[in-house]
Design goal:
270 residues, alpha/beta, D-Maltodextrin-Binding Protein, domain 2, 2 domains, three-stranded antiparallel beta sheet
């Protein structure tokens, strides 16, 4: 499993968007110097999707004790789509969510009391992988093809934007709707012509098993620039616990730094 993010992600790592962070960080530092060990603060993070490679640095941060060093007891929980993640944040069942930033931006524009607290990827690394006998390298190549999709998947939700930006008729693409986790196996079995995947997750695994045999269409190159991996919290939690968020981001960044430093060593598999 690969860990770490793309070059663009490294350039935007820890883009903290909280105006209150400096003051809260100072207050937190003062509190920690009193000499009394603090009880660990429980923090529950909900991913917006099933477990996958891009989440690895957060698990590294937990296993290496980076969260514990910040006084946090962090739970990392599998998700079932952005809608479920939003609901869990609003109810207070989880305090933070990891999701594509574009979903949070859309929710905020619709009045949901949410905010991105850190952006790790300025553009989600979305790729449409296809077989060389029916290659998809440009948007017009999508016409007439069978594309595997699952509900809530980023590549599926924003396909109409890709069509609009490239002046193609989405109704002429055959979208085959499947359960989460079924799209890549269906593609490998040649039941569909193509599948949207993340360059940082499914694609490296596919290439590791079958070689560099796939045709690829980089969706960002054709106009689908969707802010990617981000940490999201509610306005209420930010107002009451900004110091906890500062500590969480600090520890998460250590997880990313570890993975980036160690990923070239063959025994490391973040």
């Amino acid at each position: 499993m690969r860990c770490g993010l793309s070059r663009s992600a490294r350039a935007t790592r820890a883009a903290i968007l909280l105006a209150v962070v400096p003051a809260c960080a100072t207050a937190a530092g003062a509190q920690e110097t009193r000499g009394q060990p603090e009880a660990k603060t429980a923090v529950s993070l909900r991913f917006s999707w099933k477990l996958k490679g891009e989440y690895a640095p957060l698990f590294v941060a937990r296993e290496k004790g980076y969260f514990a060093e910040q006084g946090l007891d962090v739970g990392l929980n599998e998700g079932a789509g952005p809608t479920a993640a939003f609901a869990s944040l609003i109810k207070g069942a989880d305090q933070i969510s990891w999701m594509p930033g574009l979903y949070s931006m859309q929710a905020t524009s619709q009045g949901m009391p949410l905010r991105i607290i850190a952006l790790y990827n300025d553009s989600a690394p979305l790729v449409i992988a296809s077989w060389p006998e029916k290659p998809i390298r440009t948007p017009p190549d999508l016409i007439g093809k069978r594309i595997a999709m699952s509900a809530g998947e980023t590549g599926a939700v924003f396909m109409p934007i890709l069509c609009e930006k490239n002046h193609i008729d989405c109704s002429k693409i055959q979208f085959i709707h499947m359960a989460s986790g079924a799209t890549v196996p269906a593609f490998i079995a040649h039941q569909v012509d193509a599948v949207p995947v993340y360059r940082s997750n499914d694609l490296p695994i596919m290439k590791g098993k079958y070689g560099d045999v796939f045709a690829e269409m980089d969706e960002a190159k054709w106009g689908l620039v969707a802010p990617g991996s981000a940490l999201v919290a509610t306005d209420d939690y930010i107002a009451r616990h900004a110091d906890i968020l500062v500590k969480f981001v600090r520890a998460a960044n250590q997880g990313f730094e570890f993975c980036e430093k160690e990923r070239l060593r063959p025994r490391i598999s973040c």
